[in-house]
UniProtKB/TrEMBL annotation:
ATP binds at residues 11, 59, 87, 93, 104, 114. PANTHER family: NUCLEOSIDE DIPHOSPHATE KINASE, NUCLEOSIDE DIPHOSPHATE KINASE DDB_G0292928-RELATED. GO terms for cellular component: cytoplasm. The keyword Lipoprotein does not apply. GO terms for biological process: CTP biosynthetic process; GTP biosynthetic process; UTP biosynthetic process. PROSITE patterns: NDPK_LIKE. It is found in: Cytoplasm. The keyword Lipoprotein does not apply. It is an enzyme of class 2 (transferase). Its EC number is 2.7.4.6. The lineage of its organism: Bacteria, Pseudomonadati, Bacteroidota, Flavobacteriia, Flavobacteriales. It holds the Pfam family NDK. This is Nucleoside diphosphate kinase. Major role in the synthesis of nucleoside triphosphates other than ATP. The ATP gamma phosphate is transferred to the NDP beta phosphate via a ping-pong mechanism, using a phosphorylated active-site intermediate.
Amino acid sequence: MRTDRTFTMLKPDAVEKGHIGAILEKINASGFRIVAMKLTHMTTNDAKAFYAVHSERPFYGELVEYMTRGPIVAAILEKENAVEDFRTLIGATNPADAAEGTIRKMYAASIGENAVHGSDSDENAAIESAFHFSGREMF
Ligand code: UDP
Ligand code: MG
């Protein structure tokens, strides 16, 4: 299992507010190389499947609504210790708890609409990357 890649989404709120450029700038400045990237719009079935691990949680319905209401930027990022370092860069799930300077502190509105996704393990990074990209779209 490789340890130098993670998967991210710039979520619909970040895209709607015009924050794609600023967030990508921060990601690049933090030493991540872009391996794959696209603007895409998840279907309801896509979002239900992507977040299936949360299907029993009370926020699942709202999460699926939110993640399908507009396009997202999906990307694979490469850096040594990618998963952990990217989770540090984005900050806590709830922006109210996120450290100063983190992407969620700067751009997220709430625990639900929190601007960005980051994989939580090397295994999930691989699964989530394969969910959105074929091998021919990874560079
Ligand atoms: N979420 C939510 N309410 C909660 C917890 C999570 O709406 O109480 C949403 C939020 O968009 C979060 C996503 O569900 O990013 C996945 O939750 P997870 O606990 O995996 O947080 P993450 O890994 O994104 O920090
Ligand atoms: Mg998570």
